[in-house]
Amino acid sequence: MTTLLRRPQNVAKSSRQLLEAYNLSQTLARRPASLPRPLYASARSRHYATQPDSEQDGKKVDKTGGAPPKGMEHLYSQDGAMSGGPPQPPGRKPDDGGPLPGRTKLTQQEEKALNDVFKLVKKGMPATMADDIDKALVRVKKEGMPDELRETIKECTDEGMSPARAAKLWRLTTQMARHTVESEMNEKQKQAESEQPKQQTTADPGPGKTEEGKGGKKKKKESEFPDVTMIKFDLSNFLLSGFVAYLLYRLVMPTENSREITWQEFRNTFLDKGLVEKMVVINSNRVRVYLHRDSVASMYPDSPASQQGFYYYFSIGSVEAFERRVEDAQNALAIPSSERIPIMYHEEGSWANTLFAFGPTLLFIGAIFYISRRAASGAGGGQGGIFGMGKSRAKKFNHETDIKVKFSDVAGMDEAKLEIMEFVSFLKEPGMYQKLGAKIPRGAILSGPPGTGKTLLAKATAGESGVPFFSVSGSEFVEMFVGVGPSRVRDLFANARKNTPCIIFIDEIDAIGKARAKQSFGGGNDERESTLNQILTEMDGFNTQEQVVVLAGTNRADVLDQALMRPGRFDRHIAIDKPTMDGRKQIFDVHLKKVVTNEDLENLKGRLASLTPGFSGADIANCVNEAALVAARENVSSIKLIHFEKAIERIIGGLEKRSLVLSPEEKKTVSYHEAGHAICGWYFQYADPLLKVSIIPRGSGALGYAQYLPAGGGDLVLMNMKQMMDRMAMTLGGRVSEELHFETVTSGASDDFNKVTRMATAMVTKWGMSEKIGYLYYPDSGESSEAQFSKPFSEETGRKIDGEVRRIVDEAYHQCRDLLQEKHKEVVIVAEELLKKEVLSRDDMVRLLGPRPFPDAGDFSKYFGGGTGEVPTGGGPMGGAAKPTAPGPNGPDPGESGGGGATLPPGLGGSGPEPAPTIMQGFDDSTYRGFEEAFKQARR
Ligand SMILES: Nc1ncnc2c1ncn2[C@@H]1O[C@H](COP(=O)(O)OP(=O)(O)OP(=O)(O)O)[C@@H](O)[C@H]1O
């Protein structure tokens, strides 16, 4: 059975074969009936004809000449009493005396049909059984076919396959196989017995041994045929045969409870003979014909129409036409109106239609059911139900395998490390704290700008303390289903408690830990709030002995809910800022160890650190990696300084867009614009000296690009008014230079104006640098929600602010214009050189203009020479300021190389003909925000 089931293609194939065999034998065996058929039934339920029945029928008999009506042959039986018994099959082989009594020799057709039947029966049988079937077939061919089998095959051919016939075929063939095997065994037994007396005469074993000997022989004989498979009709065989018989029947005779006919057939065969009981018009396009079953059975005993539930149908074009035809037909048959055939009308939907109609609804209901099951299981408890929605998504890292990060890998945040060390010692030696009665801190919030190493620090804490580390992001608690967030929190803390001591790290906790709204509009935040509440509850729920430390990282500590920050929950608040110069050096140190470079590390990291103010730890890691990629592209064996500088340039300014070709006029404008900035930076004492200027388009839409060293040379924490005015004047330098050197100006300075306006506004509204406004702080719209809807000052104050901002910008403008008018020649020199070379470095500036009239301060002079190559000792940004010594009208010849230039330390690109580009972050948004932050903190 299983074999059969495993091979459906075999069943299909075998049934096809049987069908073919059946069809073939059907055509061969079908022959005209020897006698004219009776065309009338002995009893009728209706009489339509005007003539007597016998007459009418008699006529019909004559007309048809005994042949069934065209297309209705299936209604007539081929044999039976009326057909004159089974005819002598044509083509029978001459009797060779072979067949046994009760059997007849096979004709060629019968032999073929039998072959097919046997082949089919063999399918799905074990090989040994199939062999027996083969033997049976050979025997049948030799000894003739049992009459019962012949009749069954004939019935199948003539009348079609039925389950009973299929089962009978199966039974007969397997029975024959069994007989064959039995007779084979008998023959062998007889043969063995006939040999036995001979042996007994030659060696008589004696009276005592005879029985034993016989018995022994018997056993031996039995064991001579160990492999003979007896086909027994046990339960499994019975089921198998039933199954095969059913399959045969279904495949050969697909279920048929209706059959289509034509109007003519309907009329000739049923209507005219009065066999129609009623007609049902279905969906106005099909007519179902219900016949008088008894009359049909007596008239056509073998017709399927005599079976219960069977009906004929035919299609109609329109109901009206159909009704007209029926009417005409009945009129022609002269059926009285009281006896006319009833016609009913019925609308029925097909399965396909029903499916189309209800399918989408069912699908929708199914989807809703599925989703609600998921949600319910998610909300349903800590274990998360069958779909695991409520399970925590936290990744567990094992300190032995995954967490290899140590505090030594985290550079440049010594204070933060000190703070967090305490958690490590608590996890390592809790006893020490408990002895003194100290309560263990529950957790710490690490806050700071992106990429400053918060996750790294948390990992290092886990790595140092050697405990499991659960890392999860705040957003992973947020799902569209209600109740999933709190459920995940519960699961996370339950897991952590099972693994104590351990650390839970929730990154981006602001995703769920935002301050809860006083009133929520529409309840949209309920889910987030209940997740937060669950965290609060869980953190409260730790007993003080439980060694679970919760660390959380965020970029927005200011938006967190106060309840999170209270002692007993996140006790510690560790702010991690962007690294200082020293911090950057240390971070470069950590990352430079991972790459191959032959540069002097001490110098390299100092120089790179001073080139990267405002870089976060992640930026530094990226910069080192980028340098390695640049070096790999050039196919060199170690990374050189130039690669690092290219990498920094790329990170700050974006990719060079050499494909963007500017027209000569545009190029000239950009050159003069950038030269204006550069001259301002060079000659204003508190402005940022230029490091590199280029007119190669870069990044997103910038046509020119200049980099400056922050004034003071180091990390700027505070900025005074003079610095601000110089910086604003320098920012306007581009536009002023355009005004002075061209007839018209361009749109290229809009970003400069934006910076200047913002800075002047901050000076007036935040930094108390305007006498008219005084020492007031007006938040802008991004800072407070109230300021988003209404200005925090009156209209009059607004007007005053506008006036003050304008005044400051005007002052900066005049300061810039005065300088650039004075340095008109220098601007031309720098602009023309820039136009020629496209890129100018600090050394080019020194060559063209002479050394900057003010000494460079801080680390810049240490790593870049700063004109003297000496490290300044003491003095602030203004320390040791020399008088500006502007070159005279006959300044250095633009073509002269190295004239008066600062010499860079050897090995740092200063000795080559084209000095390595030295790049600095200019005054950009981040610097601006840095100032704001510094001012804010100073105010606090
Ligand atoms: N102080 C540091 N020392 C060494 N490497 C650092 C430092 N800070 C950051 N990095 C590098 O930056 C990568 C990213 O840092 P990390 O993921 O810890 O930043 P983060 O502050 O968590 O950022 P975010 O706030 O975006 O999640 C680290 O894998 C590491 O390579």
UniProtKB/TrEMBL annotation:
Q: Where is the composition biased (Gly residues)?
A: 865-879, 896-912
Q: Which residues form the AAA+ ATPase domain?
A: 440-580
Disordered, as annotated region: 23-104, 180-221, 865-940
Q: Family assignment?
A: In the N-terminal section; belongs to the AAA ATPase family. In the C-terminal section; belongs to the peptidase M41 family.
Q: Which SUPFAM superfamilies match?
A: FtsH protease domain-like, P-loop containing nucleoside triphosphate hydrolases
Protein name in the entry: Mitochondrial inner membrane m-AAA protease component
Where does it localize? Mitochondrion membrane
Ranges of Basic and acidic residues composition bias in the record: 180-196, 926-940
Q: Name one GO cellular component term.
A: m-AAA complex
Supply the Gene3D superfamilies for this chain: 1.10.8.60, 3.40.1690.20, P-loop containing nucleotide triphosphate hydrolases, Peptidase M41
Q: Which InterPro entries does this chain map to?
A: AAA+_ATPase (IPR003593), AAA_lid_3 (IPR041569), ATP-dep_Zn_Metalloprotease (IPR050928), ATPase_AAA_core (IPR003959), ATPase_AAA_CS (IPR003960), FtsH (IPR005936), P-loop_NTPase (IPR027417), Pept_M41_FtsH_extracell (IPR011546)
Which catalytic reaction applies to this protein?
ATP + H2O = ADP + phosphate + H(+)
Q: Which cofactor does it need?
A: Zn(2+)
GO MF terms listed in the record are: ATP binding; ATP hydrolysis activity; ATP-dependent peptidase activity; metalloendopeptidase activity; zinc ion binding
Task: State one Pfam family annotation.
Answer: AAA_lid_3
Among SMART domains, the record links this protein to:
AAA
Recite the UniProt keywords alphabetically. Answer: ATP-binding, Hydrolase, Membrane, Metal-binding, Metalloprotease, Mitochondrion, Nucleotide-binding, Protease, Transmembrane, Transmembrane helix, Zinc
- Answer yes or no on keyword Mitochondrion: yes
Report the source organism. Answer: Meristemomyces frigidus
Choose any GO biological process term that the UniProt entry carries and state it.
mitochondrial protein processing
Its record classes its membrane topology as: Multi-pass membrane protein
